[in-house]
Design goal:
single chain; alpha/beta; TIM Barrel; eight-stranded parallel beta barrel; two-stranded antiparallel sheet
Length: 362
């Protein structure tokens, strides 16, 4: 059976840093709630349904999310993890509360969001304010990171591939130091009797495979949400860029067209993991500067799920993995969680295709 792992954003509870940068009580819901339609037929705002405008400080919320994911066929949540160096972390509370709560059975894994945080202006000035700089400080710092999350890695629920700990890195080429990071963690895993890691780096249309694998990665997750854009000719790209950056008009693609490009033939390779998205709309954060997918109906997503399953069908069982972007990126209009317009539609689409696959195999 194909395993579907969903990226999970922990940005749904107040933290002192967000209070300082964006105002008291800021969470991802702040952007979601103030979103407005930018053109006729534009679906905004996205209003959450079954789980509501939740607060991740509540045990009931975390349990409800896990139960919902399990019911509809999600194999694991992949929590975004923020380590900036020198012990600086952000948004760590949800994963540690899940760790402590043994009533939650859904497997989990981590993805290092190794990028600098900026308070973006989304205007012509480009005067973004750095609010948390991503640093690469060498073996001692990577060792500190490892031991900080060691209890999570030792948890029996931590998701493994062929017995190896699944760990994703958002920007595998951000620094030559990633090579040192990987070697350090592999060594420490052996030392702590954890076995080994299954390191997965992000790529797009498999443009940088040689460089990524040279650093020691086991696999690449191929994020092609906007591959439709990459396939345009240069003239069309320039026109769209001008409209977005100068005229403040979003770039809009029909979802039913975009899904034709999301999963490529590279997904058939053993060490390439496809990425699928049920929807995408960055306008709650970036307004007219957004690139977005329009008319993201669950029936189209079901076709995408079906195609992704076909593409990984000939792999070994443990490598039949598809990443979902994402479980709850509401500020990017990117969520499997139910909303008022489509309800449980995306989750039901996933479940139907998994049942179809199971029946076909049976």
């Amino acid at each position: 059976m194909t395993k579907f792992i969903a990226f999970y954003l922990p940005q749904y509870y107040p933290i002192p840093e967000n209070d300082q940068w964006y105002g008291k009580g800021f969470t991802e819901w702040t952007n979601v709630a103030k979103a407005k339609p930018l053109f006729r037929g534009h679906y905004q705002p996205h209003i959450p349904a079954d789980l509501g405008f939740y607060d991740l400080r509540l045990q009931e919320t975390r349990r409800a999310q896990a139960a919902m994911a399990e019911e509809y066929g999600i194999s694991a949540f992949c929590y975004w993890n923020y380590w900036f160096g020198e012990g600086k972390q952000l948004l760590t509370m949800p994963i540690w509360e899940v760790y402590k709560d043994k009533e939650i059975k859904l497997p989990f894994c981590l993805a290092w969001a190794n990028h600098t945080w900026e308070k973006k202006t989304w205007d012509k000035t480009g005067n973004n304010q750095v609010i948390a700089e991503q640093k690469y400080l060498g073996e001692k710092d990577y060792t500190d990171y490892f031991y900080t999350i060691l209890p999570l890695l030792k948890d029996e629920r931590y998701y493994r591939v062929d017995g190896k700990l699944f760990f994703a890195i958002w920007d595998p080429l951000a620094s030559p130091d990633i090579d040192i990071f990987i070697k350090t963690w592999r060594m420490l895993a052996q030392k702590e009797n954890l076995g080994d890691f299954f390191f997965v780096g992000k790529d797009s249309a498999c443009r940088s495979l040689d460089k990524i694998f040279h650093l020691g990665f086991d696999a690449v997750y191929d994020d092609n949400v906007f591959n439709i854009h990459h396939n345009l000719n240069i003239v069309r790209k320039c026109i769209l860029a001008f409209q977005r950056k100068v005229l403040n008009r979003p770039t809009v693609f029909n979802y039913k067209d975009a899904i034709k490009y999301m999963v490529t033939d590279d997904a058939e390779r053993e060490n390439i993991i496809p990425v699928i998205s049920p929807n995408w709309d960055h306008s709650p954060r970036s307004g007219g500067k957004a690139i977005l997918l329009h008319d993201c109906k669950p029936e189209y997503f079901q076709k995408l799920v079906h195609y992704a399953i076909q593409k990984v069908s000939n792999k070994s069982d443990s490598k039949k993995i598809v990443l979902i972007k994402a479980w709850n990126e509401w500020g990017e209009g990117n969520h499997m969680e139910p909303d008022l317009k489509y309800g449980l539609g995306y989750l039901e689409a996933l479940k139907k295709e998994l049942e179809f696959e199971n029946n076909a195999e049976g």
